[in-house]
Amino acid sequence: MSHSPAPPASVLTAFGTAGRPAPLPGGQGSAWRSDEVMLKPAGMGPETSWRAGVLCHLPETAGFRVARPVPAVDGSWCAGGWEAWRMVGGTADPRRPDEVIRAGEAFHAAVAHLPRPRFLGVRDNAWSRADRLAWGESDESPDFPLLRPLLAARRPVTAPAQIVHGDLLGNVLFDPDAPPAIIDWPPYWRPAAWASAVVAVDALCWWNADPALLERWSHLPDWTQLLVRALVFRIATHTALDATQESEYRKVVDLVLG
Fold this sequence. Notes:
four-stranded antiparallel sheet; globular; alpha+beta; four-stranded mixed sheet; single chain; 10 strands
């Protein structure tokens, strides 16, 4: 995957860092490191400011830590179309889905009091459109045969919605000397257990997780329905499915729908 252009010198100066930018792996190929600061292109201004404002003050617990935002010299959370975050130690390990789910639960407990941010109502990208389809808030669907039985299997969900992290599996960093670190937070307004369902689906599709993972977390409210929605969410972000993707998704669809 190609990497996006590096942040210019003016952006480095704005965030008080001078190290030569080096590309960081993972994600969408857009993150760079300069000294102990991670920089990436900012998305929606209101979303960037909201997320930074929350994480700037969020108390950490024994269950998780977070990357803290770096303000620009003028006090804002964006500069030249970029945002900045303190680097945190640790390594992502998608083969540890149970631990990722537990870290997510601790994080979601800490943010459960937050009201729904207004920017969620206007965010429009492949992920937000797939999310709305999964929850019956849109009928704009790719014409994938895999989606049809999932959409037909949806039933009402009673678990309350809150702000959650919608992409945890590759965004929890493990360090033997510290709690797991939550990074790269894409916020969604869904039941907390939906975020855990996304972790489970991702682990089963792409990391050869033991199918017993689903049974271990089946005590979560509305678990099967949240797995159904997690699968719709992941599948519907694609504009096309190649044979490998379809095969990996199909085995998990069959597992969930039984």
